[in-house]
Amino acid sequence: MIADWYERVCQNIEKVMVGQQEATELLLAGFLAAGHVLLEDVPGTGKTMLARSLAASLGLDFKRIQFTPDLLPSDLTGVNVWQDGGFRFVPGPVFTQVLLADEINRATPKTQSALLEAMAESQVTVDGETRPLASPFFVIATQNPIEMDGTFPLPEAQLDRFLLRLRLGYPEEGEEVQLLNRLRGHHPIEELRPVSDAAEALKLREEVLDIRLEPELTEYVVRLLRYTRDHDDVALGASPRAGLALQRTAMALAALAGRDYVLPDDVKRAAGPVLEHRLIIRPEARLEGVSAATIVEKALAATPVPSEEIG
Amino acid sequence: MTALYALALVVFATVTPPMLWPGALVFVLAWAIFPRWRSHLAWSAVFFSLYLFFGSDPQDSAEMRRLALLAGKLTFGLLAFAWSATLAESNSSWAPLPFFTWAFLARPSGLVLGLGLLAWAGWQLVRQQRQNRELGRSFAIDPRGGLLAAVIILALAALLANAGTITRQQQTHVAAPASTISNSGPTAVAPPPSRGGGKAAIPAERVSLPLSWEALAFKLLNWLISLGLLVLLALVTTLWWRLLTTPTTRQRVDRKSLLLVLLAVISLALGITLFALAFPGKGIGLGNASQTVASSPGPQQIGEQSQPTATKKAGWLGLFLLLAAFSMLGLIIFLAYLLFQLLRHEPAVDPEETAAPPPGRRTPEFAGRVRTAYREFLRLMLAHAPVSRSETPREYARRLEKRFPQLAGWVRELTDLYEPVRYGGLADEREAARAEELVGLIAAELEREREEI
């Protein structure tokens, strides 16, 4: 069921995106795992297009907001305005099903944190009144890791709210040629038709929860987390929330592959996108070239996979 | 076929003392009742040879403590052999033979050579089993071939044992005058044994051996025996824990009770053996314990040593022997009962275990078979490209595909069968059979390559 859905959505997205199968799969895994995704890459790699094509393919309500330094929290959540003798709530762009927060690190921390409540609890509070958001609610944020002038790095608490951080990367040479040919005239995003709907998406999210995860794999996830906490080069290791995210993402990846059980390969595949943005490396180690990706690789190489013991 | 069995019976009765016959009966019953364990039972044929090697004949000796020591040594010998046999099976090589080097050093008699030959015969049987698998035959050794091999090897072992005895006796007689006798006087000199086991007589502990490689090896052997007993103690403790923590289901109450009783007897026997080793002379009712020996001498030697005290009460060790006899009797009755049930075509103890599941049914038993097959595959590959602990089955398969392209298809298929079982739960009979077949194919291919090299 989920595998069919995945195939349909993927084929639709591929009408617009070329050569981003892995990112697309992880993005859909993030969606099925009821998380939010941070796309981080240089400009022009298709971050915004991927988000738009996903929303269009899923038939979900889509809004985009460009984060800038002068963006206010109320611009995001909405505001009460005086009209016809009373206050009327004018909802902000956060009241949607798929929200594209473009260049999220350009807004001030105050505005960034306005997203916290929305992402964690699917609700916003304006003037003391709490309003639920639409369901499903899926935030895709983008940021440029190179151009740092006039940006505000995301606070750790906010980074932890993102289930996955993905990097798209440049397409292969052949794929790039294909991309140029395909987009020579009008952009196909305008013609993209939905191949799913919100009801189906919600049902599939429920199905992911039924994917079997062996207790030994849960222990494997915990051992990975603990490795990052105990490593000398790490100032802040992965939190228990990271463990939940890793577990949920692995389950979603298993479901997309058409399996009803999780393999250790799913955990390994999800480890990088789930853990890397949550680790803080000590400055001295960073100077020596140690990165979060290095630590995750070491964790995967050092942690025994639950398989068969041969004595 | 009947003539062959009759011949085997005659040869066995000729070359073995009557004290081995009950054990042989247990072996034959077990062979008939547990067809799936036959490959393991084939290895246990060496039991008889080991028994001869370590040597004992209670009819000629009233020394109870010696029998307790014998039980410990025998257990250790079996453990060592089981370990080396496992190595042989996993590597398809001569790997077990080096593990008998210590035995050669300790007792350079002809019987040890017979033991090595018997190990080789067992290894051949396992190979034959693998070839059967490759040809798609059932998971069993041809009993005729196995029986014939066992008969030939036993006959050879008996002949070589006699040769070894003569050689050894000559050595002992020559060495006796030079030995220092502690307190038992000339009785410590081993006279030639008349019959039964213990043909390769080893001098008593109190007899100081000349400082030679043989004496050192002898001390090392005693050390290993003590170590083996400690390992056995740990094993029995683990078994206790496992058994007591296993949830009892309605169908398994009887079997669990039986196992508990057997385990209690074994534990008690082991405890007494350790006691006898740790406190010689205490609780064994033999008085002059310092005359006893720490290893297995020839039966005549001990018989003569302990004659003055033979009529005394056996004490704890007598109780141990009584319990051991009862447990053996119980085991024989239990096996006979199982055989009786099988002959009546009725499920023995656990109907769910013995009844064949319908085709296509996915059960934990079949899943267990797939996992066992995969473990065997990992063992097979130990000598070629061992799996890393941080490697998933899929990653391992990819690595093997690059290194052994000729195995790629089988390895991929085996991994595909294994993954849903290990991480998904159940398997059906077809999958289990296919996994076992694939391991056989991989083993045969590796063997073929090795022979080509």
Notes on the protein architecture:
The complex is a heterodimer of chains A (311) and B (453). Chain A has two domains: 2-202, P-loop containing nucleotide triphosphate hydrolases (Rossmann fold), CATH 3.40.50.300; 210-302, Orthogonal Bundle (Helicase, Ruva Protein, domain 3). Chain A is an alpha/beta fold and 311 residues long. Chain A is globular, with a radius of gyration of 20 Å. Helices cover 46% and strands 15% of the residues of chain A. Chain A has a five-stranded parallel beta sheet with strand order 2-5-8-1-9. Chain A has 13 helices and eleven strands. Chain B is mostly helical. Chain B folds into two domains: 2-334, no CATH class; 364-452, no CATH class. Helix content of chain B is 67%, strand content 0%. Chain B has 17 helices and no strands. At the A-B interface, helix 11 and helix 13 of A face helix 14, helix 15 and helix 16 of B.
What is the count of β-strands of chain B?
A: 0
Q: How many structural domains are formed by the residues of chain A?
A: 2
Shape of chain A: globular
**Oligomer class:** heterodimer
> What is the CATH level 1 assignment of the largest domain in chain A?
Alpha Beta
Mean pLDDT of chain B: 58
Radius of gyration of chain B: 25 Å
Reading the helices and strands of chain A in chain order gives HHEHEHEEEHEEEHEHHHEHHEHH
Number of helical segments with 4 or more residues of chain B: 17
Distance between the termini of chain B: 39 Å
Roughly what is the average pLDDT of chain A, rounded to an integer?
89
CATH topology of the largest domain in chain A: Rossmann fold
Biggest sheet details of chain B: none
Describe the largest sheet of chain A.
Answer: 5 strands, parallel
User: Beta-sheet strand percentage of chain A?
Assistant: 15-25%
* Strands in their spatial order, largest beta sheet of chain A: 2-5-8-1-9
- Counting structural domains of chain B, the number is 2
Main interface by residue count: A-B, 21 and 20 residues
